[in-house]
Design the sequence.
């Protein structure tokens, strides 16, 4: 029996909801907590999930001597009783984030070996704790961040550069907390779950160098402030390559979220195929590749016979020209690229969304494409191909009423992509 449009959309939304729910700190965090220390517990954190993670710690340890401060994105706060919650800007840093990073460093200073620092980290932590290295200013780092977001660099490459311009990232928070024990509880939003790339690794050794950062700047032809170029050239105060007394624990990852979505798919009679949790590349090109796999499943039963769903995660990139004025994010762009490649093929639907609930410049998590997406867009007087070229995927899906809107989910395990082949 064929899939109706209503059933396909419900199935895709159900899989996305399952993926997000699997990464809810209120459900998964407590089981990863270490033994209670003899001394104090200082809770610090940064990221889109920092506030709800702090609340989860408070709930798990109601009588512990907790104190501390965390920073999250504006609008991503959550009520806490003993840990202070600050808010700052993301993805472009602001003065509030720099001040929050300084507050966090102050909170972990002067501790003893009997004390425990719990660092709660999730996606967005880099921008939220942008504290310039000596000799640099916040406007310098804001300019760098804008250049990184428009460069086409991967998240790993961006964080290599950020770590070498920061007084907080690249292991520097762990150094500030010594000799206290530092346990990091992390929600991964990066391909491969690399701790050094999650919020630029404030509590882990940095495997990269100033030379690596300079090479990336050259490779991508980034125009950076003179003070930044000079700082990278001096290569003073290299990030730590070894840290003692630290422990790093993942409480949620992209792969765990994809497995939760796969289980939800089975419950709807679909065969799930997880293509990977670390797919990267230019968003529209990734969309084209995913469409090709879906067409193969429809025509040949490979990599699975219909009805099936192709699941993937990771973080694509969007290389934006200086004069671009479009609206949307990498998931919308990937989805529109897929829709154009599918060219109205019957029986294939797709949902692509950011698990934090915000895709790029707008307030939607992502969108859904159906077999009739292109036809409906053209009937509405829109040119999907021209809008993709203008980086305005939002203009298409908003006009069609096909946005996925969740509001902030208070977690973040990166992008979620599902193509249902019915």
Sequence:
């Amino acid at each position: 029996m064929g899939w109706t449009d209503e059933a396909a959309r419900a199935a895709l939304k159900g899989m996305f909801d399952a993926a997000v729910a699997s990464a809810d700190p209120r459900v998964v965090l407590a089981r990863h907590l270490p033994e209670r220390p003899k001394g104090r517990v200082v809770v610090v954190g940064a990221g889109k999930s920092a506030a709800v993670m702090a609340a989860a710690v408070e709930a798990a340890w109601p009588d512990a001597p907790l104190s501390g401060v965390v920073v999250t994105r504006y609008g991503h706060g959550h009520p806490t009783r003993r840990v202070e919650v600050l808010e700052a800007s993301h993805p472009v840093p602001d003065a509030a984030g720099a001040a929050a990073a300084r507050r966090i460093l102050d909170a972990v200073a002067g501790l003893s070996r009997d004390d425990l620092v719990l660092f709660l980290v999730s996606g967005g932590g880099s921008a939220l704790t942008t504290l310039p290295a000596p000799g640099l200013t916040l406007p310098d780092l804001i300019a760098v961040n804008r250049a990184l977001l428009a460069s086409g660099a991967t998240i790993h490459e961006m964080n290599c550069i950020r770590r070498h311009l920061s007084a907080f990232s690249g292991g520097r928070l762990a150094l500030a907390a010594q000799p206290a024990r530092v346990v990091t509880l992390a929600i991964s939003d990066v391909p491969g779950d690399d701790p050094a790339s999650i919020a630029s690794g404030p509590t882990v050794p940095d495997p990269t160098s100033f030379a690596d950062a300079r090479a990336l700047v050259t490779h991508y032809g980034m125009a950076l402030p003179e003070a930044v170029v000079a700082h990278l050239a001096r290569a003073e105060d290299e990030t730590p390559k070894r840290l003692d007394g630290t422990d790093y624990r993942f409480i949620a990852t992209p792969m765990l979220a994809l497995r939760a979505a796969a289980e939800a798919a089975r419950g709807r009679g679909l065969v799930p195929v997880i293509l990977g949790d670390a797919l990267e590349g230019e968003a529209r090109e990734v969309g084209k590749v995913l469409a090709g796999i879906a067409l193969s499943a429809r025509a040949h039963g490979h990599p699975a016979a219909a009805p099936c769903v192709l699941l993937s995660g990771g973080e694509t990139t969007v290389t934006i020209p200086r004069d671009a004025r479009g609206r949307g994010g990498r998931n919308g762009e990937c989805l529109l690229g897929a829709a154009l490649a599918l060219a109205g093929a019957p029986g294939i639907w797709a949902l692509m969304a950011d698990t934090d609930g915000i895709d790029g410049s707008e307030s939607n998590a992502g969108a859904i494409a159906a077999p009739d997406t292109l036809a409906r867009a053209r009937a509405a007087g829109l040119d999907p191909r021209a809008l993709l070229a203008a980086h305005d995927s939002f203009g298409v899906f908003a006009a069609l009423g096909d946005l996925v809107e969740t509001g902030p989910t208070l977690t973040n395990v990166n992008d979620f992509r599902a193509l249902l082949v019915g």
